[in-house]
Amino acid sequence: MRTHTPSSTSASPPLPTDPEAFLRHLFDVAVRRALPLENMRAMLPPVPQGGRTWVIGAGKAAGAMAQALEQLWPADAHLAGAVVTRYGHTPPRPTALDGQPPRIDILEASHPVPAEAGLAAAERMLAIAQAAQAGDLVICLMSGGGSALLTAPAAGLTLADKQRLNQALLDSGAGIGDMNCVRKHLSQIKGGRLGLACAPAQLVTLAISDVPGDDVGVIASGPTVPDRTTCADAVAILERLNIDLPAPVWAALRDGSLESPKPDHPVWATHQVNLIATPRDALQAAASVVNAAGLPAYILSDDLEGESREVGRVHAALATGAATGVGRTKPHDFSAFKVPCVILSGGETTVTIKKHPPERGLAKGRGGRAAEFCMGLAQALNGHAGIWGLAADTDGIDGIEHNAGALVTPSTLTRAAAAGVSLSDCLTRNDGFGFFNAIGDLVVTGPTHTNVNDFRAILVMPDSASVE
Predict the structure, then answer these.
(1) In 143, 219, 399, 420, which residue has its Cα 20 to 30 A from 99's Cα atom?
(2) 268-282 as b/e, with b when 16 or more CB fall inside 10 Å?
């Protein structure tokens, strides 16, 4: 990171000399704050006296969480089990574990659409849970992505049915809460059912939150926590989204046969849940770096939802208002944002995939919600000279491509025009990856081995500021 050195006699904060590197550094800091080993030690339960410790878990961070637990758990205490993560998301084995055979197996499966490996992983988790006895401890490691990685279709559904359902939910633009409500009621493992299988052992869930409001019932569809949603809620969501199911499954939803375990079930009486990393933690870490550079940081929220491109346009309106002084009663008077500054936000936006008639000849786009946000931001900023932005998913994967997100600069639109790529066309096709790939502004990290949802940072300079 290159910044001017703050001076105690300076009348105004220094300006970053490399805005793009500055924003990327903020993202890296946010991701580092959410790594499991940094946060797990204080959350661990006591080693059971005379009992065994079993480990289960799922999510994009599950491999790193398992390795962190292996490093922190006493070497002479029992520890065994398995977790499942996305293909390619198993971290290199830490040097601290050199020469030690793995005590926790790290399985891999497909994401975001479930497949056979996820079905096998779910069966493995259930078998481990059912093997636990009174006096044993079960530690469940959960993070975002676990919904697809653990798949055990409810009675009347095949794996192919679950794949079609999952794809329809992804394409619908539904929020994560609605998606996971449906998933919990069409599963043999989600919505608390895996937790029931652990009884009579003690159960402790350690989770990394990637959901608005840090609702542990939504993280990975809450396999080891009680469910407050109902079959009726799931029916209403499916009907609103016009998603079909086999007739026997509709009947089971409507008569409550597929109801999930609720908070009043006695199995939860001794259950502990600890959040070891959250979106708010990551944003605050980035804000501390901004403040150390002499700039104010404004965290809008850690749980913003909505259509990605529209959220991008809202961020653009806030940034341009700050940069131009809109809303001030007189020059340099009080404003919601003091510029230069950085505006931060997190949460999980959505992208509604548009279906176009074949005769239009429009190729389906390749892009996730972070790149879609950046297209909306770039369009609304329209080349504003004093504003840069970054949006990226903290797991390192935006949608199904290899990028974490993208950058927006004052020259985004002019460089796109020179490259012959149309922003409006890419928006029509939800092709954020194609747009930013064409101008070299993808943010690529590879798997980060954590997941606290989307990170967004907007650097706002005064209109008169120049960057060297």
Answers:
(1) 143
(2) beebebebbbbbbbb
- Do 45 and 272 meet the contact criterion of CB atoms below 8 Å apart? yes
450: left (phi over 0), alpha (psi -120 to 50) or beta: beta
Residues 173-198 have pLDDT tens digits of 788 889 999 999 999 999 999 999 99
Asked if the peptide bond before residue 266 counts as cis, ω within 30 degrees of 0, the response is: no
User: For the residues 70-75, what does the mean pLDDT come to?
Assistant: 96
Nearest Cα to 59, choosing from 133, 7, 135, 125?
A: 125
Q: Report the DSSP pairing between strands 341-347 and 137-142.
A: unpaired
Helix (H, G, I), strand (E, B) or coil at 300: coil
CB atoms within 10 A of CB 36: 27
Domains and CATH numbers, the chain: 36-277 (3.40.50.10180), 279-460 (3.40.1480.10)
Inter-axis angle of helices 231-241 and 247-254, nearest 10: 130
pTM, entire model: 0.87
* Burial class of 261 by CB neighbour count within 10 A (0 to 12, 13 to 18, 19+): middle
Q: What are phi and psi of 346, to 5 degrees?
A: -140, -170
Give me the pLDDT at residue 462, please: 79
Task: Please check the confidence at residue 3 and state whether its pLDDT lies above 90.
Answer: no
Q: Which residue has the tokens 């998933």?
A: 183
pLDDT tens, residue by residue, 403-455: 999 999 999 999 999 999 999 999 999 999 999 999 999 999 999 999 999 99
Q: Give the C-alpha separation, 132 to 137, whole Å.
A: 8
How many alpha carbons fall within 13 Å on the CB side of residue 224? 31
Q: Of 400, 395, 339, 403, give the one whose Cα is nearest residue 374.
A: 403
3-state SS, residue 254: helix
Q: Residue 141: beta bridge partners? A: 57, 206
- The burial of 418, by beta-carbon neighbours within 10 Å (0-12 exposed, 13-18 middle, 19 or more buried), is given as exposed
Burial class (CB in 10 A: 0-12, 13-18, 19+), 134: exposed
At 263-301, the pLDDT tens digits run 999 999 999 999 999 999 999 999 999 999 999 999 999
